[in-house]
Amino acid sequence: MSSKEKFIKGLEQAWRDEVRSAKNYRVLAEQEKDPVKKTILIRMADAEDRHAERWAKRLAELGVDPGEYRESFVERLRRWVLVKSDPAVAAQMLEAGEKDADQLYDVLLRNAQSDDDTAALHSAQREENAHSKMLEEFEGRGSRHPQTRLDKILGREQWHIRAGGWIGQAIYGVNDGLGAAFGVVSGIAGATHVNSEFVLLSGFATMIASALSMGSGAYLATKSEREVYEAELDRERTEIETNPEEEREELELFYQLKGFTEQESKDMVARLAKNPDQLLKTLAHEELGLSEQSFPKVWRSAVSATISTAVGAMIPVLPFLFAQGLSALVLSFIVSTLAHFAVGASKVIVTGRSWVRSGTEMTLVGIGEAAITYVIGLLVAPALG
To answer: pLDDT value at position 385?
Structure first.
């Protein structure tokens, strides 16, 4: 099947999905007693209708007549279940449909036949993502819901990778370097009958490789996140320029779902619209959950990861600079075990867990890793002669 054929087939499916989604939203709007939610459902249905009309027009340009939409028995049955379901369950069902549509648009984007197709698909996909967020509010999983607020608070305590992430990255780096070097030192010691020169060489090689790997990985990951953010921001900027009314309407709906009245939402968006940059950032945050402040500094992440990994990897190796043979191995084991406990306990800074439990857990993992690699070293020793 050619790219064009795949595009047409996918577009036909997208047209059917949009028509069906519009019907679903309108049926739920008829059942909804809350006037604010009722209005929002109708607006979402209108958006789905616009998408369907757009795809029908594009199909006609490609020489394909989508015909008249005919519902199957299964689709009518699903709508009946939707109407009879609890509102939160109905919202979940609709959200699943939005996610399916998002995946379909990914496929269509890979087979887009023109730049206009790509722009139209991006626009529709972003609206589908916005609808998903609105449906989360309907389910009670939006930003004002107590459980969501609790999840966000707890999320901030788990390593702070996004906000102030260098502390979490430093702890990860020390842990990674310590674990890798401790394992290598134990394995080489077992394989060479604690030959200090071999242990030192392999230990330092592991330290350098681990530090560079962690540093470059942190750099590329942080840089990629920022590039994705900037690309999404560019797309959102284009949407504001080409469809300003639709974008303002979406933001109004978000604010209404957060508890503001329709007039209050309009006033807030109108005020934001006076500052295009602020409107752009607000839309990106509400629709995509993106914020420039959420990304750590690229070079700070790289340097933090590199140095911390090197420090961690150096700990098991240092005893071999001052001692030889079995005594060096025993000293390395003691120092590394204490370091594992210290690193585990330090996680309390960013996780809020019990420092004793966290330290003990990491210590046991480190000892287990060293024991396994040491045994492996003993097993391969005969092959080394």
So the answer is: 58
